[in-house]
Automatic annotation (TrEMBL):
PROSITE patterns listed in its UniProt record: RIESKE (PS51296)
Name this protein carries in UniProt: Rieske domain-containing protein
Highest taxon listed in the record's lineage: Bacteria
Region ranges (Disordered): 1-24
Source organism (scientific name): Deinococcus phoenicis
Listed Pfam families: Rieske
Biased composition (Basic and acidic residues): 10-24
Keywords assigned: 2Fe-2S, Disulfide bond, Iron, Iron-sulfur, Membrane, Metal-binding, Transmembrane, Transmembrane helix
Cell membrane in keyword set: no
Length: 180
């Protein structure tokens, strides 16, 4: 019987006396001698410095958040003459800035109160219901006290934002508050 000629792989094995490397070393070859190893000490130092940097950044954010901020002064806006608002009625007006509405209510006893018109639950527009003398949010049946803006019932968790009013020379002025 004649021996079969050797395949190229068999020739490599016969010619190279060194042991063959596993296939993963040839597929993912890394020159281990040229690779920089990271020691445990270097890795621990890296983790410590990273943690210290994150702690310092968090502290700076906390300090910056706790600093007092200057709130812009609300403008003084003339709403109209007292006789323009009959008792038991309401009037919407833009305050404290364009596009933000507030609601002025004149009560049966002639006193006034005003609140931001945006419901704190989901932002629906609140209106005055004269028959019940309450402010009502039609979206989820939230009711507010028309004199104080406090929640009476419904899903809102907090009251309406109060607008400060001033009566001067027979005129009604919005002078502060009402932020949305």
């Amino acid at each position: 019987m004649t021996p079969k000629p050797a395949t190229p792989a068999q020739k490599d094995r016969l010619e190279d006396p060194r042991p063959r490397q596993p296939h993963w070393k040839t597929d993912f070859s890394v020159d281990w001698d040229a690779t920089d190893y990271v020691s445990r000490r270097e890795f621990t130092r890296f983790l410590g410095l990273s943690s210290a940097g994150l702690a310092a950044g968090t502290t700076l954010v906390a300090v910056a958040g706790s600093l007092p901020r200057q709130t812009p002064q609300a403008p003084r806006v003339r709403l109209g003459r007292v006789e323009d608002f009959p008792p038991g009625t309401s009037q919407a007006f833009e305050y404290p800035q364009k596009g933000q509405f507030s609601l002025l209510v004149r009560h049966d006893d002639g006193t006034f109160s005003a609140f931001g018109q945006k419901c704190p639950h989901l932002g629906c527009a609140v209106y005055y219901a004269p028959h019940s003398r309450k402010l009502e949010c039609p979206c989820h049946e939230g009711f507010f006290n028309a004199r104080t803006g406090d929640v009476i019932s419904g899903p809102p968790q907090r009251g309406l934002n109060r607008v400060e009013l001033e009566l001067r020379d027979g005129e009604v002025w919005a002078v502060g508050g009402g932020g949305h």
